Structures are given as structure tokens and as C-alpha cells.
Amino acid sequence: MNPAPDRIVVINDLSHPMGGASALAVSSARRFAERGYPVALLSGDAPDPALTLAGIAVTGLGQTRLLGRSGALLDGLWNRAAARMVRQWIAENDTARTVYHLHGWSQILSPSVFAALAPVRQRLVISAHDFFLACPNGAFTQFRTGALCPHTALSRACLAEPCDRRGQAHKLWRVARHAVQRLVFQPQSAPPVLAIHAAMRPMLARAGIPPEVIHPLPNPVVPFSQTRIPAERNDTVLFVGRIEATKGADLALAAARRASLPIILVGDGADRARLAAEYPEAHFAGRLAPPAIGALAATARVLVMPSRYPEPYGLVAMEAALAGLPVVLPPTALLAAGLVAAGAGATVDPQDVAAHAALLSALARDDARVEAMSRAGFTVTRHLALSPEEWLDRLLAHYIARLGPVQAPAAARSQSRSELIAADA
Predict the structure, then answer these.
(1) I need a surface site. Which of 5, 56, 160, 229 has the fewest CB within 10 A?
(2) What's the N-to-C CA distance of the chain in angstroms?
(3) Rounded Cα gap, residues 352 and 350, in angstroms
(4) What is the pTM of this model?
């Protein structure tokens, strides 16, 4: 049997979670530390001091996310400081039984992180929380219309597709970044890729990643409530997520207004101030801790997840469904088929505001249907998610599988530490 790792290194853009993917990366670091494993976290932002108090060795660049930051165009293509940080950590700390888990890199770390991790690629695991491994805009979506993209990244059809929500100039920048990423990532010999839904496999394989290295690993889910929310007694629409265009907060607000239903939005984002002014009847609760979200969920009739792109998982949808809160989501969300089959969800194109509002109105009037959806979510959707402990066990199995024959530490290989660092000077 391969030995367990003697250190787990989690690598992510953020140590302060701003969304589901970052929350999972940080949660894995915390939970492995609680199990007694030595854990390090390398991040692009300033390290969260709370992680140090949790026994995690945190190293961070102190940078912010690319959008709106000076030098973002160049750093987004190749963040030399990020590469230096990762190379230096490996040179100083790597052992033959250290495993590396890369989560997010598109916001700060950039494709340079793949080059920095090359010396330890045999002990690397990558999580696909989105489609950035296979698609320049990370979503396989035409954002203006919501249509799914059938193209292969960097193909002639891909280059001609006006899919980026910020315009063609930004699309060309994303294409350039993806070309750099493909060069250093080398998808044809990819390490294990942990996809958060099985339906991601053909989309990731479109980029040349061998299907056999793509392993479905559903997200860990802690429900909003451990007891069933009696949704049939409530009347409020609930939205939980970033208040920005990709997540469709504006679409949720428009549908709730048209249906004359109260709506609560949990989260923050670039569009919050504008939407709060445009929809004064809505309640914007801001970012909340899980217990506070649970308290609001207990007053809701339905959760809406009106994303403009095919959500690879949609953590809030499962947090709601497992608590007995019916879910309305787009048919493009990869969880949609499972939730509808279980009787816990209903689908609608959120960009069709009239149809979206009509569905919400129908659910508002039909207590029996809402109760049936609530009970179905609470009792028969567990197979669509993992518990946190199950998730950690599955992660650990992937880590152990990467340890194989003992390797010499990267610090002792042909390149010295000074040479490794100089490569990105």
C-alpha cells in the first residue's frame, strides 16, 4: 500500500473565500489539519491569519484579483511573482511524500503556476471547479445569450465566437491566456483532474485531457438545515451567491418583481449597489455566515439559481435541496437533471423573465407541489452530494494514489534553488 502523505499543499487564488470553489479549497485545508495532517496553503492574496491559528502554514502573494488591478493584463497571462512563490516553496519544503492540490488559478496565480509545479507534477492533483482547463471564458457559454458553446478551445470557430461578457478585446486576451496555459499545462499528459460533476468529463475532454484521468468527485454539502424546511408554509424567494451578472441576480430580481413575490439576496458583488437601487423592494442581506443563511432559508419557499452559464455543480442548490427547500434552476446546470429526477427541482430558462416569473407564481400558489418537492429534496437527493467526511476520504485516496514509488525531493534535483527562482526573475 502506498504511504499516506506527510504534507498536503493546497494551492488557490484566495485564502479568503469569495465563492464556492475557494470555500472548498480552504475547507479542505482546515479539515485535513483537523485530522492531524501537516497542511500548507499557497495563495495569491494576503494570507488569512485565521488559517495560521488553525495550524496551517500559509504563504501568500498579497495580491488582489485581476479585475481592476494595475498590471492585471500581463499578470493574468503569466504571474511571475506567483511562479516564484510556488517554486521557492517547493525548493525549500518539498519531500517525496508531499502532495499538491491545485484548485483555482484564473483570478491571481495565472498559468505560470503550472510551470512552477512541473517538478512535482507526479504528485499533483487538480480540481476542476469550472471549465478554465478547457475553455478560455471558463464556462463553455455565450454569455450574452446563455447558449452553450459547442466549440473546441482555440479552434477557428472558438476564435470567431463573441462569447465574452466584457467584449471581444477581453475575449482575445482570454484566448492568449488559454494558449499560454495549454503550452504549460500539457493536457494530453494531465495529472488527475477531479471534476465536481460527472457531466463535466466530455467538456473537459474536449480540450485534449484524457477521459481516464478525469474523476468525478461531487462537492461536500452541509445542508442549510438539518431538519426539513416546511417550504410550503413560506412565501419568500431566496437567492444565495455573488451579486453579479454570471450568477443572474438581476434575473432573479426581475422574475420575483414580475411575480409580485418577496425576495432575499444573500451575498455581495459588483452589481449589488446598482441592483439595490433598481429593486428597492428586495432585501439585500449581504455576506452571511452559514447559520445566518440557514435562518433565512428557513423562511423561504424556493431557492433560485439563475446562472447565465452551465453551473458545474451549484453548491447552494444542494445546500437548499438537502434542507427541503425546492430549487428553480436552468436546464443547463449540471445538477438540474438529478434534482428534477428526484422531484426536488424545476427548470426554466432564467433569461426568459416571463417564464421564470410564471414558474415562481405557480409554485407560490401550489402548496401541495411545494411540499412534495421539499420532502423529495430532504429524503432522496443525498446521492447527488458527499458529506464533508466522505469528500475528505475520497480526496485522500487520490492523494495516496499519487505517491507511488519514492521520488527524490524536488529541492535535490538538477536545478538548484537559486536556478529555480532565477527562472522567473
Answers:
(1) 160
(2) 41
(3) 5
(4) 0.90
